[in-house]
Design brief:
Number of domains of chain A: 2
Helix content of chain A: 10-25%
Number of strands of chain A: 18
Strand order of the largest sheet of chain A: 1-2-3-4-5-6-7-8-9-10-11-14-15-16-17-18
CATH superfamily of the largest domain in chain A: membrane protein fhac: a member of the omp85/tpsb transporter family
Largest interface: A-B, 80 and 93 residues
Number of helices of chain A: 5
Distance between the termini of chain A: 54 Å
Distance between the termini of chain B: 32 Å
Oligomer: heterodimer
Largest sheet of chain A: 16 strands, antiparallel
Largest sheet of chain B: 7 strands, mixed
Structural class of chain B: alpha+beta
Order of helices and strands of chain A: HHHHEEEEEEEHEEEEEEEEEEE
Number of helices of chain B: 14
Shape of chain A: elongated
CATH topology of the largest domain in chain A: Porin
CATH class of the largest domain in chain A: Mainly Beta
Number of domains of chain B: 3
Shape of chain B: globular
Number of strands of chain B: 18
Radius of gyration of chain A: 29 Å
Radius of gyration of chain B: 25 Å
Structural class of chain A: mainly beta
Chain lengths: ~400, ~575
């Protein structure tokens, strides 16, 4: 029915309703007259297509069904290294209350791909313990490498292809709500090849095994590690108060050449300080990674920690700085605009060094910027930021995950 | 029905989009809706004219004032479940103005009798404040049983997707036809949601709404079994409900020291579910539903009740329509339900400080906060909440509570339409809860820590008093007019009765003879000024009058609204006079 028709019908309706009102003898009759007339024109509630669509999405849990269902085929989105481009692929999961089996693939617009499978027992010891076994095959054809050390040049950008098959098992317990400890063992078979990004030279054009250890030979590795986490944040995602501290140590054993074995310490400390409760938060993070090779051994460059990208020094390209030791300091002032939007002003500083004692606060690369985070109480669903001050231009960040 | 002119006596602008809008993008949809709301407003205004005492026809009918709106007379068996989208409801109410435009005077509520009261109906039953209610009756609420023992019960399935509280559905094998939904409290906040549910159910029942029975039960996992036919629906579809599902639910539940679990058992309401009702428009498939919901006083004034208990989740998704049978006829009964997130509870955790103070989205304040990098703060962001209370208590306080500033999670058209006379009606009901009644209702929640009981009782009393002070004085609070056979007029002052105001400087009264057919007043005598709500009517007025009216203005230096005229109408009945009308003039 057109609008004018409806309007005309409204006027007719009004004349009909007004006229007979005085004809009624009682209030009850007057009221029931309205019902009598309505009874002749009943029709079902007809939601708009938008409302119908949204109801279907909610009622059938389409978002969860498409991206994270308990059972069946679903779509994996992302979860490849930064710089891989947009990634996605099919996945399948079967899970019940005790066991979950997931196999997934992801292929990106920059020809990265990964095949991943995981068997998880999550509810052991009344939910306080878990065991996972997983394996993956990955091919990352154009990983960036700028050289080692804090003085590496932006103009020295090269790329290499990284392939790996790995299998690992890990398990952990949470004796309390705020403490968890976990251990893992992993067998890795990394392989390098010429980078396929034609915009930049392949790594072998500018670097050698002496400037990029591990470039010529890639052994298999056995990783054995342990991790302890203390977490008393007020919520697992997007915390507003509390602290989260993670300490881990892993040993990487060269299984082929007795040349590239090393140990790696990681300390990650996050502290969230509320200012006027949920309205504003100061989020602080200090991350230190230190790799120590066995006597006479080297640390392969492709297993060394890096700085740069959306989660560390946002003013630098991903993997821009790399070396055996890493220091990253981040501070964010976050303010809640509304329940769905949070603003952030951030400052990042960090450096890498060959020797641990060379990590100091005097020669930090830094950046600063501003951004917006979209999400809900369940955390950040999407963030967009702009970073300045690194000396390497302005960088824009667009990610579907929180920074830390 | 907002776009369907064929349905009589309903607000054409009151419904969600219908024909003509499918497939449109939201912006266009909103513009189209706006047009229909304009058209609908025209119809609404006409409806007000027809049904109000100022419209065509006599002001009073012989059966005025009606105490019951017989809205179960027409058969509604054709009504079908309405499936509302939670997201759409949020978008529609946040970015649109469904129903009557909120920035104009929405007019007097439509479902009132001539005494400015709400007749009993399928929506509302006058209880506290309108008839004596013992504390025991208030506490018991809608419950059919004294208590419920769920030992040996049978789990028949999981909850429907959605909702924040984990739980399952179960029956007593001896009465398998009656279904219950059992829900747990979160481990970090034992008793938080269940306590709120118990208190909210009892209060809303006493206020007059239809609510479902809710019981506190202790569930021993060893004594409850799972039906072989039990199923659960998740994102992957429907499947068998197994012990692991039960264990998963209990894993996220607060556990008692003896290994049992305190849970809420909600008794499924009688009849067939018809989904939710919106706070605007009417059901197009229910012949009895003729008053646009945004013009129903009990829905407008629910803002008062929601403010009292901080029911910030008062929206369509927490309402329920049931098709019930009576005398071979089917009609729709309307319920309020799900009170687990009142009293500062967000069901699984305490509410955010924003709760009750700001909408989820607000253009001006959000922009100010964005542009000032969060340095611009609103007063509610500085409110201190006690930090030494048990976790069963959510984020709620009574000391700096401002009833007029209270807001639900997102705009609610009926709340937007609430006028001072609606608020006054609601505030009288809130004020009718005595300290003892409030304490008894809170005690029903059986909080383990007495500090929780004491704190919530005191908060509800403080908030009740603030509501009474604000909204009982927002109009001229004179009520309950009686004209005795000897011509003695008495009335009450609801604000003074509720100790929400001190006695003022008296009242000015003027009398008139009222011609019901011509809707005309003939002033009689001169104005009378009295200090007490008791006065003799002019004797020559009473002789031979078909109707007499008295207009009363109050005088109080602190409450200018007392000066608004209130007019009461009387009609001879037997040897005396019957109060047939009350108008709050503006």
């Amino acid at each position: 029915m057109g609008r004018l028709t409806r309007f005309a019908a409204s006027l007719v309706f009004l004349s009909v309703v007004v006229a007979p009102a005085s004809a009624q003898q009682t209030r009850t009759e007057q009221i029931q007259q309205g019902r009598t007339e309505k009874a002749d024109h009943l029709h079902p509630y007809q939601p708009s297509k938008i409302e119908t669509f949204l109801f279907e999405v909610e009622d059938h849990l389409w978002v969860e069904r498409l991206f994270n269902p308990p059972r069946g085929v679903f779509a994996r989105v992302g979860d490849l290294p930064e710089g891989a481009g947009f990634a996605g692929g099919p996945a399948y999961r079967y899970s019940n209350q005790t066991v979950s089996f997931t196999v997934s693939t992801a292929i990106s617009t920059r020809r990265y791909w990964e095949l991943d499978g995981k068997l998880a027992f999550r509810q052991l010891a009344s939910g306080r313990a878990f065991v996972e076994i997983s394996g993956r095959r990955r091919d990352f054809p154009e990983e960036d490498f700028f050289g080692l050390g804090p003085e590496s040049r932006r103009s020295a950008r090269t790329n290499y292809a990284f392939r790996e098959t790995s299998i690992d098992a890990c398990g952990g317990v949470s004796p309390t709500a705020w403490l968890s400890v976990a251990g893992a063992v992993e067998y890795m078979t990394p392989q390098l090849a010429r980078g396929r990004d034609r915009r930049f030279p392949s790594i072998d054009r500018l670097f050698s095994d002496s400037t990029a250890p591990g470039l010529q030979l890639q052994p298999d590795f056995m990783r054995v590690g342990a991790r302890a986490t203390v977490d008393y944040t007020d919520r697992p995602l997007g915390p507003r108060s509390g602290g989260r501290y993670i300490v881990s140590y892993d040993t990487y054993s060269d299984r082929d050449f007795d040349r590239y074995s090393f140990g790696r310490w990681n300390v990650d400390m996050q502290q969230y300080v509320p200012i006027v409760r949920d309205a504003r938060t100061i989020a602080l993070r200090a991350h230190v990674a230190s790799l120590t090779p066995n006597e006479g051994h080297e640390v392969p460059f492709y297993l060394q920690p890096t700085l740069g990208g959306a989660s560390s020094l946002r003013g630098l390209r991903p993997y821009r700085l790399r070396d055996r030791n890493l220091l990253l300091l981040q501070a964010e002032y976050r303010w809640e605009v509304n329940a769905f939007l949070t603003g952030a002003i951030f400052y990042d500083a960090g450096t890498v060094a060959f020797r641990r004692r060379d990590l100091n606060l005097n020669d930090l690369t830094h950046d600063y910027g501003i951004g917006l985070r979209f999400g809900w109480t369940s955390g950040v669903a999407m963030r967009t930021e702009v970073a300045f001050g690194s000396g390497e231009g302005t960088r824009f960040v667009f990610r579907f995950a929180d920074v830390f | 029905m907002c776009s369907d002119a064929s349905a009589p006596n309903v607000n054409r602008g009151a419904g969600p989009p219908r024909e003509g809008t499918p497939g449109q993008v939201p912006g266009r949809f909103l513009r189209a809706s706006r047009l229909r709301y304009v058209l609908g407003t025209t119809a609404t205004l006409a409806f007000i004219l027809v049904t109000s005492s100022h419209g065509a026809g006599p002001r009073f009918y012989p059966d005025d004032p009606i105490s019951v709106d017989h809205d179960a007379l027409f058969d509604a068996s054709g009504a079908k479940p309405i499936e509302l989208s939670e997201t759409f409801d949020f978008l529609e109410n946040t970015f649109g103005s469904p129903g009557s435009p909120g920035n104009n005077d929405p007019g007097r509520a439509l479902n009132l009798n001539t005494l400015d009261e709400v007749p009993n109906s399928s929506w509302f039953t006058n209880r506290i404040g309108r008839r004596p209610m013992s504390i025991a009756e208030i506490v018991r609420g809608p419950d059919k049983f004294e208590r419920l023992d769920v030992d040996e019960w049978l789990i028949t399935g999981g909850k429907s997707p959605g909702g924040l509280q984990p739980g399952f559905r179960a029956v007593d094998p001896r009465h398998p036809e009656q279904l219950y939904q059992l829900e747990v409290d979160p481990p970090s906040h034992p008793e938080l949601a269940s306590g709120a549910e118990i208190i909210g159910t009892a209060l809303y029942h006493a206020m007059g709404y239809n609510v479902v029975d809710v019981y506190l039960v202790n569930v021993d996992p060893k004594k409850i079994t799972i039906s072989k036919k039990a199923t659960i629906r998740d994102a992957s579809g429907r499947r068998a409900f197994v012990q692991g599902d039960r264990d998963e639910i209990l894993r996220f539940a607060a556990r008692n020291a003896d290994g049992t679990y305190r849970m809420i058992a909600s008794r499924f309401a009688e009849g067939a579910g018809l989904g939710n009702f919106k706070y605007f428009g009417t059901r197009p498939d229910d012949p009895n539903d003729i008053y646009p919901h945004e013009h129903r006083r009990e829905l407008r004034a629910n803002r008062v009740f929601s403010a009292w208990v901080n029911h910030d989740d008062s929206r369509a998704i927490n309402t329920l329509d049931m098709l019930v049978s009576e005398n071979g006829r089917k009609y729709v009964r309307h319920y309020m339900f799900d009170f687990g997130s009142i009293l500062g509870s967000a069901t699984r955790f305490a509410d955010t400080p924003r709760s009750g103070h700001a909408y989820l989205l607000e253009r001006r304040s959000n922009l100010a906060r964005l542009l000032t990098f969060g340095l611009w703060l609103q007063p509610w962001q500085f409110i201190d909440y006690p930090d030494d209370l048990p976790s069963a208590v959510g984020r709620i306080q009574g000391d700096v509570f401002d009833p007029e500033q209270w807001k639900p999670e997102y705009p609610n058209q009926a709340f937007r339409n609430m006028r001072p006379d609606d608020a006054f009606w609601g505030a009288r009901i809130v004020a009718a809860f005595s300290d003892e009644a409030i304490a008894a209702v809170v005690k029903k929640a059986q909080y383990t820590d007495p500090r929780a009981t004491e704190y919530l009782t005191s908060v509800l009393i403080k908030r009740r008093d603030k509501i009474a002070k604000v909204w009982l004085n927002a109009v001229n609070p004179v009520v309950d007019f009686q004209l005795a056979p000897d011509g003695t007029l008495t009335f009450e002052n609801a604000a003074i009765k509720a100790t929400a105001a001190t006695p003022g400087r008296g009242y000015t009264l003027s009398w008139s003879r009222f011609d019901n057919a011509a809707d005309a007043h003939e002033p009689i005598g001169s104005e009378q000024t009295v200090s007490e709500p008791r006065v003799r009517a002019p004797l020559d007025l009473l002789k031979g009058s078909e109707y007499v009216a008295v207009t009363v203005r109050g005088h109080h230096p602190e409450h200018p609204a007392w000066a608004q005229p209130v007019r009461a109408y009387f009609r001879p009945e037997g040897v005396g006079w019957k109060t047939v009308g009350l108008e709050r003039l503006r």
